[in-house]
Amino acid sequence: MADRDRAETALAERLRQLGTDLTFPPTPPLVPAVLERLESPRARRPVLPAGRDRRRAVIAVAVGLLVALALAFGARLVLGAAEIRVQPGVTPSGPPLGPGGLGEPVAVEELEAAVGFELALPPGPPPDEAYAVRTADDRAGALLGWRGGPDHPPLPGTPWSRVLLQVHSDAETITKTVARFEDVRTVTVRGRPGFWIDVPHDLIVRTETRFERYSVGGNVLIWTEGDVTYRLETSLRLRSALALAEGVG
Amino acid sequence: MDTGSIETVEGRPLEDAELVELARKGDVRAYGTLVERHRDLAFRAAYLIVRNAADAEDATQDGFVKAYYALGRFRAGEPFRPWILRIVTNEARNRRRSAGRRERLELRLAERGDREDAAPSPDAAASLGEARAALIRALETLPERDRMVIGYRYLLDLSEAETARALGVRPGTVKSRLSRTLRRLRAALPPELARGDDDG
C-alpha cells in the first residue's frame, strides 16, 4: 500500500514536471479579436442581469410565501433549466416518459461525447438505456434509464424504475405543471435548493422547435449542480431519492 | 485598439473581481485585461481537448465572448479563472464533437538547454526523453474524462478545486478520478517507470 502510494506520488510529480517541459503551440493574441467582437455594433448588447441570482431570489420568495402563492394562478418556480407551474385543476395527459419516442438508445460513452459535458451517474449499476435529448436553446442533454426489478418497481407505464435527465442549459427546457403549490416541496441537495414532487403531474420537454408532453406517475427530484440541471424520476421515497442524488457524480 | 491592462489610480493592477465588476457595467477594456490575463491557460486547456491550435484558438475566443455575455451569472466572490476555464472547456468539447474527428495530442517537449539544472549526460538525457515520451504515450491511452482530469490537474497545474470547477464535477470526483487514473497510467507504463524509480 505504501509502495503504491509512493509510486503514485512519484508519478504525479513526474506529470507535473512533464507539464513544465511541454511546449504548447503559441497562444494567439486573443484580446483584439475578442474586443472587436464585443465592440461590433451588431454584437453589442448589455451584459445580462444576474440570472442565477434572480432564480435564487425567486426560489427564496417562493419558499417564504408558499401558502400565499398557492392561491395564485400562473405562478411558477424556476430552477436551472426546469420550471414548475401551478395550474389548479390540471390533470396529467400524454404518455409516460419511456423508451418509446426517444429515438435510438446510445452507449453512455458515446452520449457523453455527444452532450459535451461530463455525465453524472449515481453509484451502482450503469443505466440500461441512454438517449440524447435537445434543450430549448438547442444544446444537448442526456436521459438515462434503469430498468425495474423485484426490488425496484417500474414507474407507471414504463419499464424503468429510475430515469435521470441531465441538461446543460439555462433555457427552460423542462416544464412541470402541478395542481397546487403544496404539491411542490423544497428540499436541499448537496447544500443547494431542489424540488420534490410526489404527485402525478404534467411534464413538457421543450426543444428549439417543438415540445413533448408526458404524464408523470413517479416521484421527481429536481436539483442543479453548476450549469447542469438534474431531474430524477423514481419510485423511491424522498429520503432514499435524496440519498441517491447525493451520490450522483 | 488599446488593449493595455487597467490599473487603479495607485498603479496597482486590478484584481479579477474588480475587473469583472467593471466588465459587468459594460467596460469592455476591463474585460480585455481579463482575457489577456487568462488567455494562455484557457488556450492550453482548449488545446488539450481539441488537439489542434486552430480549433483551440476558436474555442478560446468563443469562450471568452460567451463568458462576457454571461457575466451576469458569475457569482460574486467566486474565482474567475476556473469559471472561464469551464466555459472554454465546454466550447472546446462542443467543437471537438462537431468536428467529429480524433486527433492525436501533439505535445512536444521543450528543449532543456535553457534550464538552469546541471546538464544531464547524453545517456541520461536520452533516458529522460524516453521516459517522458512513454508518459505522453500512456496519456494517449486514457479515456478522455481521465486524460482531462490529469491534464488540468498536473499538466496545467490547477488545484483540485479549480480542476473540479473547470470540469464541472465535485472535488471528491476529481480526487477519486485522479487516484484511479494514476493507477491506470502506472499500468500502462513500462515497469521501471511505473515503480517510480525513474528520476525523470
Please characterize this protein's 3D structure.
The complex is a heterodimer of chains A (249) and B (200). Chain A has 249 residues and is α+β, with helices and mostly antiparallel strands. Chain A has 6 helices and 13 strands. In chain A, the strands form 2 sheets. In chain A, strands 4-5-6-13-12-9-8 form a 7-stranded antiparallel beta sheet, with helices on one face. About 12% of the residues of chain A have low confidence. Chain B has 9 helices and 1 strand; from the N terminus they run H-H-H-H-E-H-H-H-H-H. In chain B, helix 4 crosses helix 7 and helix 6 packs across helix 8. The termini of chain B are far apart. The interface between A and B is large, with 56 and 73 residues.
Q: Average pLDDT of chain B, to the nearest integer?
A: 79
Which band does the percent of strand residues of chain B land in?
Answer: under 5%
The CA-CA distance between the termini of chain B, in Å, is 45 Å
Strand content of chain A: 25-35%
Query: Which series of helices and strands of chain B comes N to C?
Result: HHHHEHHHHH
**What is Rg of chain B?**
19 Å
Number of strands of chain B: 1
Mean of residue pLDDT values of chain A: 77
Uncertain parts of chain B: 111-120
Largest interface: A-B, 56 and 73 residues
Biggest pleated sheet of chain B: none
Span between N and C termini of chain A? Answer: 26 Å
Cα radius of gyration of chain A in angstroms: 22 Å
Shape of chain A: globular
Q: Give start-end ranges of low-pLDDT stretches of chain A.
A: 43-54, 56-73
Cross-sheet strand order for the largest sheet of chain A: 4-5-6-13-12-9-8
The best one-word shape of chain B is: elongated
